Amino acid sequence: MRPPSKTAPEGHRTARLVTVGGGTSSLPPAPDVAVLVVLTGPQLGERVRLVSRVEIGRDPSAGLRLRDPHVGPRHLAVEPTARLDRWRVIDLGAGATHLDGRALAPHTSREIATREEIRVGDTLLRVEVHGEVEQEFDRVVVERLHKDDLTGLYSRRKFEDELATRLEHDDEPLVLALLDVDGVKRVNDAHGHLAGAAVIAHVGRTIARTLGSRGLAARLGGDEIAILFALPLTEAIAITESLLDAVRFAPCVHEEYRHAVTVSAGIADRRGDAGLIMRAADSALLEAKRRGGDRVNVAQ
Known about the structure:
Elements: E1 16-20, E2 23-27, E3 33-38, E4 47-49, E5 54-57, E6 64-65, E7 76-80, E8 86-91, E9 97-99, E10 102-104, E11 109-113, E12 117-120, E13 123-130, H1 132-146, H2 156-168, E14 175-181, H3 184-191, H4 193-211, E15 216-221, E16 224-229, H5 233-248, E17 252-254, E18 257-259, E19 263-269, H6 274-290, E20 296-298
Parallel strand pairs: 5-6, 19-20
Antiparallel strand pairs: 1-2, 3-4, 3-13, 5-7, 7-8, 8-11, 9-10, 9-12, 12-13, 14-16, 14-19, 15-16, 17-18
Helix pairs in contact: 3-4, 4-5
Protein backbone atom coordinates (compact mmCIF):
# COMPACT_ATOMS: atom_id res chain seq x y z
CA MET A 1 0.00 0.00 0.00
CA ARG A 2 1.42 3.40 -0.99
CA PRO A 3 1.99 5.89 1.84
CA PRO A 4 -0.24 8.96 1.85
CA SER A 5 1.00 11.95 -0.14
CA LYS A 6 2.97 14.57 1.79
CA THR A 7 1.95 17.36 -0.57
CA ALA A 8 0.11 20.14 1.23
CA PRO A 9 -3.50 20.70 0.12
CA GLU A 10 -3.97 23.45 -2.47
CA GLY A 11 -4.18 26.84 -0.82
CA HIS A 12 -2.50 25.60 2.37
CA ARG A 13 0.74 27.32 3.34
CA THR A 14 3.19 25.26 5.37
CA ALA A 15 5.16 26.72 8.25
CA ARG A 16 8.91 27.19 8.06
CA LEU A 17 11.14 24.90 10.15
CA VAL A 18 14.01 26.60 11.94
CA THR A 19 16.70 25.10 14.15
CA VAL A 20 16.41 26.04 17.81
CA GLY A 21 18.93 24.70 20.31
CA GLY A 22 19.73 21.64 18.24
CA GLY A 23 16.09 20.83 17.39
CA THR A 24 13.52 22.24 15.02
CA SER A 25 10.69 24.61 15.73
CA SER A 26 7.81 25.61 13.50
CA LEU A 27 7.29 29.30 12.71
CA PRO A 28 4.17 30.57 10.99
CA PRO A 29 4.74 31.84 7.44
CA ALA A 30 4.91 35.57 6.84
CA PRO A 31 1.44 36.90 6.01
CA ASP A 32 0.52 37.64 2.42
CA VAL A 33 0.57 41.33 1.49
CA ALA A 34 -0.94 43.34 -1.34
CA VAL A 35 1.66 45.05 -3.54
CA LEU A 36 1.19 47.72 -6.21
CA VAL A 37 3.61 46.87 -9.03
CA VAL A 38 4.69 49.24 -11.84
CA LEU A 39 4.73 47.32 -15.14
CA THR A 40 5.67 50.05 -17.65
CA GLY A 41 6.91 53.64 -17.79
CA PRO A 42 9.88 55.43 -16.19
CA GLN A 43 9.33 53.69 -12.83
CA LEU A 44 9.24 50.17 -14.33
CA GLY A 45 9.80 47.62 -11.57
CA GLU A 46 8.94 49.84 -8.61
CA ARG A 47 6.58 48.33 -6.06
CA VAL A 48 4.75 49.65 -2.99
CA ARG A 49 2.93 47.73 -0.26
CA LEU A 50 -0.81 48.43 -0.05
CA VAL A 51 -1.36 48.22 3.68
CA SER A 52 -3.21 51.54 3.60
CA ARG A 53 -4.21 54.22 1.08
CA VAL A 54 -1.46 55.05 -1.45
CA GLU A 55 -1.66 58.20 -3.56
CA ILE A 56 -0.01 58.09 -6.98
CA GLY A 57 1.26 60.98 -9.10
CA ARG A 58 4.20 63.25 -9.90
CA ASP A 59 4.08 65.08 -6.58
CA PRO A 60 7.21 64.37 -4.46
CA SER A 61 5.03 63.53 -1.45
CA ALA A 62 2.99 60.89 -3.32
CA GLY A 63 3.23 57.36 -1.92
CA LEU A 64 4.20 56.22 -5.41
CA ARG A 65 5.84 58.98 -7.41
CA LEU A 66 5.72 58.56 -11.20
CA ARG A 67 8.01 60.62 -13.44
CA ASP A 68 5.51 60.19 -16.26
CA PRO A 69 4.78 63.58 -17.92
CA HIS A 70 1.20 62.48 -18.65
CA VAL A 71 0.43 61.85 -14.98
CA GLY A 72 -0.94 64.60 -12.75
CA PRO A 73 0.67 65.70 -9.46
CA ARG A 74 -1.90 63.66 -7.54
CA HIS A 75 -3.57 61.49 -10.14
CA LEU A 76 -5.25 58.64 -8.27
CA ALA A 77 -5.29 56.67 -5.04
CA VAL A 78 -5.52 52.96 -4.31
CA GLU A 79 -6.71 51.70 -0.93
CA PRO A 80 -7.71 48.39 0.70
CA THR A 81 -11.37 47.51 1.23
CA ALA A 82 -13.08 45.33 3.83
CA ARG A 83 -12.59 42.37 1.47
CA LEU A 84 -9.09 40.93 1.35
CA ASP A 85 -9.25 40.36 -2.41
CA ARG A 86 -10.56 43.78 -3.47
CA TRP A 87 -9.05 47.27 -3.64
CA ARG A 88 -10.62 50.64 -4.37
CA VAL A 89 -9.18 52.88 -7.10
CA ILE A 90 -10.08 56.55 -6.69
CA ASP A 91 -9.65 59.07 -9.52
CA LEU A 92 -8.45 62.42 -8.13
CA GLY A 93 -9.39 64.47 -11.20
CA ALA A 94 -5.87 65.10 -12.54
CA GLY A 95 -6.29 63.15 -15.81
CA ALA A 96 -7.58 59.96 -17.36
CA THR A 97 -7.53 56.72 -15.35
CA HIS A 98 -8.34 53.38 -17.00
CA LEU A 99 -9.15 50.12 -15.23
CA ASP A 100 -8.71 47.09 -17.47
CA GLY A 101 -9.26 49.35 -20.48
CA ARG A 102 -12.37 51.06 -19.12
CA ALA A 103 -12.23 54.77 -18.27
CA LEU A 104 -12.91 55.78 -14.69
CA ALA A 105 -14.96 58.98 -14.48
CA PRO A 106 -13.20 61.91 -12.74
CA HIS A 107 -13.60 61.99 -8.95
CA THR A 108 -15.24 58.55 -8.85
CA SER A 109 -14.02 55.19 -7.59
CA ARG A 110 -14.30 51.54 -8.51
CA GLU A 111 -13.27 48.31 -6.85
CA ILE A 112 -10.78 46.04 -8.60
CA ALA A 113 -9.56 42.49 -8.05
CA THR A 114 -6.05 41.04 -8.09
CA ARG A 115 -4.14 41.56 -11.35
CA GLU A 116 -6.64 43.97 -12.88
CA GLU A 117 -4.61 46.61 -14.71
CA ILE A 118 -4.57 50.32 -13.94
CA ARG A 119 -3.32 52.69 -16.65
CA VAL A 120 -2.44 56.35 -16.08
CA GLY A 121 -0.51 58.25 -18.75
CA ASP A 122 2.11 55.87 -20.15
CA THR A 123 2.29 53.85 -16.92
CA LEU A 124 0.65 50.49 -16.28
CA LEU A 125 0.09 49.32 -12.69
CA ARG A 126 -1.27 46.14 -11.15
CA VAL A 127 -2.20 44.96 -7.66
CA GLU A 128 -0.70 41.59 -6.74
CA VAL A 129 -0.80 39.52 -3.56
CA HIS A 130 2.68 38.38 -2.57
CA GLY A 131 3.63 35.60 -0.21
CA GLU A 132 6.89 35.19 1.66
CA VAL A 133 9.03 34.29 -1.36
CA GLU A 134 7.64 37.11 -3.51
CA GLN A 135 8.17 39.60 -0.68
CA GLU A 136 11.86 38.73 -0.55
CA PHE A 137 12.00 39.12 -4.33
CA ASP A 138 10.34 42.55 -3.97
CA ARG A 139 12.99 43.60 -1.47
CA VAL A 140 15.81 42.55 -3.79
CA VAL A 141 14.24 44.25 -6.83
CA VAL A 142 13.75 47.57 -5.06
CA GLU A 143 17.30 47.44 -3.68
CA ARG A 144 18.70 46.77 -7.17
CA LEU A 145 16.66 49.64 -8.63
CA HIS A 146 18.02 52.11 -6.08
CA LYS A 147 21.57 50.86 -5.45
CA ASP A 148 24.55 50.37 -7.76
CA ASP A 149 25.98 46.85 -7.52
CA LEU A 150 29.60 47.77 -8.23
CA THR A 151 30.11 50.70 -5.86
CA GLY A 152 27.30 50.41 -3.33
CA LEU A 153 26.33 54.01 -4.12
CA TYR A 154 22.83 54.97 -5.21
CA SER A 155 21.73 54.18 -8.77
CA ARG A 156 21.17 56.64 -11.61
CA ARG A 157 17.40 56.19 -11.19
CA LYS A 158 17.57 57.15 -7.52
CA PHE A 159 19.75 60.16 -8.40
CA GLU A 160 17.34 61.40 -11.09
CA ASP A 161 14.37 61.06 -8.73
CA GLU A 162 16.20 62.92 -5.96
CA LEU A 163 17.40 65.69 -8.29
CA ALA A 164 13.87 66.25 -9.64
CA THR A 165 12.49 66.39 -6.10
CA ARG A 166 15.09 68.88 -4.86
CA LEU A 167 14.67 71.15 -7.88
CA GLU A 168 11.00 71.51 -6.99
CA HIS A 169 11.96 72.92 -3.57
CA ASP A 170 13.54 76.13 -4.84
CA ASP A 171 13.81 77.61 -1.35
CA GLU A 172 16.58 75.14 -0.42
CA PRO A 173 20.26 75.23 -1.44
CA LEU A 174 21.25 72.69 -4.10
CA VAL A 175 24.71 71.90 -5.48
CA LEU A 176 25.61 69.16 -7.96
CA ALA A 177 29.11 67.71 -8.23
CA LEU A 178 30.01 65.41 -11.12
CA LEU A 179 33.12 63.31 -10.50
CA ASP A 180 35.10 61.32 -13.05
CA VAL A 181 37.90 58.87 -12.23
CA ASP A 182 41.13 59.89 -13.98
CA GLY A 183 42.96 57.32 -16.09
CA VAL A 184 40.55 54.36 -15.91
CA LYS A 185 41.20 53.64 -19.61
CA ARG A 186 44.93 53.28 -18.91
CA VAL A 187 44.18 50.77 -16.15
CA ASN A 188 41.85 48.83 -18.45
CA ASP A 189 44.44 48.77 -21.23
CA ALA A 190 47.33 47.75 -18.96
CA HIS A 191 45.63 45.36 -16.53
CA GLY A 192 42.22 44.47 -17.96
CA HIS A 193 38.66 45.56 -17.33
CA LEU A 194 38.41 43.72 -14.02
CA ALA A 195 41.16 45.97 -12.68
CA GLY A 196 39.32 49.04 -14.04
CA ALA A 197 36.12 47.89 -12.33
CA ALA A 198 38.06 47.37 -9.09
CA VAL A 199 39.32 50.96 -9.29
CA ILE A 200 35.79 52.33 -9.81
CA ALA A 201 34.46 50.23 -6.92
CA HIS A 202 37.32 51.42 -4.70
CA VAL A 203 36.61 55.07 -5.53
CA GLY A 204 32.90 54.57 -4.81
CA ARG A 205 33.60 53.05 -1.40
CA THR A 206 36.11 55.77 -0.54
CA ILE A 207 33.64 58.51 -1.48
CA ALA A 208 30.81 56.88 0.49
CA ARG A 209 33.01 56.51 3.58
CA THR A 210 34.33 60.09 3.41
CA LEU A 211 31.05 61.76 2.43
CA GLY A 212 28.88 60.13 5.07
CA SER A 213 25.49 61.79 5.38
CA ARG A 214 26.61 65.18 4.02
CA GLY A 215 25.38 64.44 0.49
CA LEU A 216 23.76 61.84 -1.75
CA ALA A 217 26.20 60.03 -4.04
CA ALA A 218 25.19 57.93 -7.04
CA ARG A 219 27.02 56.17 -9.85
CA LEU A 220 25.65 57.43 -13.15
CA GLY A 221 27.48 54.84 -15.25
CA GLY A 222 31.05 53.93 -16.18
CA ASP A 223 33.39 55.86 -13.91
CA GLU A 224 31.11 58.89 -13.42
CA ILE A 225 29.71 59.66 -9.98
CA ALA A 226 27.23 62.40 -9.04
CA ILE A 227 26.79 63.98 -5.63
CA LEU A 228 23.87 66.16 -4.54
CA PHE A 229 24.42 68.61 -1.69
CA ALA A 230 21.71 70.50 0.18
CA LEU A 231 24.41 72.95 1.30
CA PRO A 232 25.78 76.36 0.34
CA LEU A 233 28.19 76.30 -2.59
CA THR A 234 31.30 77.03 -0.50
CA GLU A 235 30.61 74.06 1.80
CA ALA A 236 29.93 71.75 -1.13
CA ILE A 237 33.24 72.77 -2.75
CA ALA A 238 35.17 72.11 0.48
CA ILE A 239 33.60 68.65 0.90
CA THR A 240 34.29 67.76 -2.74
CA GLU A 241 37.93 68.76 -2.34
CA SER A 242 38.13 66.51 0.74
CA LEU A 243 36.74 63.64 -1.35
CA LEU A 244 39.47 64.13 -3.96
CA ASP A 245 42.08 64.16 -1.16
CA ALA A 246 40.68 60.92 0.29
CA VAL A 247 40.85 59.17 -3.11
CA ARG A 248 44.35 60.52 -3.83
CA PHE A 249 45.76 59.19 -0.55
CA ALA A 250 44.06 55.77 -0.72
CA PRO A 251 45.55 53.71 -3.59
CA CYS A 252 43.50 50.83 -4.98
CA VAL A 253 45.05 47.39 -4.43
CA HIS A 254 43.89 44.80 -6.97
CA GLU A 255 45.59 41.40 -7.12
CA GLU A 256 49.34 42.17 -7.05
CA TYR A 257 48.99 45.72 -8.35
CA ARG A 258 48.70 48.98 -6.46
CA HIS A 259 46.94 51.66 -8.51
CA ALA A 260 47.33 55.33 -7.62
CA VAL A 261 43.95 56.94 -8.30
CA THR A 262 42.80 60.52 -8.72
CA VAL A 263 39.42 62.08 -9.47
CA SER A 264 38.30 65.23 -11.28
CA ALA A 265 35.15 67.15 -10.32
CA GLY A 266 32.86 69.75 -11.86
CA ILE A 267 30.46 71.66 -9.62
CA ALA A 268 27.35 73.70 -10.37
CA ASP A 269 24.81 75.25 -8.04
CA ARG A 270 21.05 75.40 -8.59
CA ARG A 271 19.81 76.01 -12.13
CA GLY A 272 16.27 76.17 -13.55
CA ASP A 273 15.92 72.48 -14.36
CA ALA A 274 17.78 69.17 -14.33
CA GLY A 275 19.18 69.61 -17.83
CA LEU A 276 20.69 73.00 -17.03
CA ILE A 277 22.42 72.00 -13.82
CA MET A 278 23.71 68.74 -15.36
CA ARG A 279 25.16 70.55 -18.39
CA ALA A 280 26.77 73.21 -16.20
CA ALA A 281 28.41 70.63 -13.92
CA ASP A 282 29.49 68.51 -16.91
CA SER A 283 31.12 71.52 -18.62
CA ALA A 284 32.98 72.32 -15.41
CA LEU A 285 34.11 68.69 -15.19
CA LEU A 286 35.41 68.70 -18.77
CA GLU A 287 37.41 71.84 -18.00
CA ALA A 288 38.88 70.18 -14.91
CA LYS A 289 39.94 67.21 -17.04
CA ARG A 290 41.37 69.51 -19.73
CA ARG A 291 43.51 71.22 -17.11
CA GLY A 292 45.12 67.91 -16.12
CA GLY A 293 42.58 66.35 -13.75
CA ASP A 294 42.79 65.75 -10.01
CA ARG A 295 41.09 69.07 -9.34
CA VAL A 296 37.72 70.73 -8.66
CA ASN A 297 36.34 73.22 -11.17
CA VAL A 298 33.26 75.33 -10.49
CA ALA A 299 30.79 76.39 -13.18
CA GLN A 300 30.32 80.11 -13.61
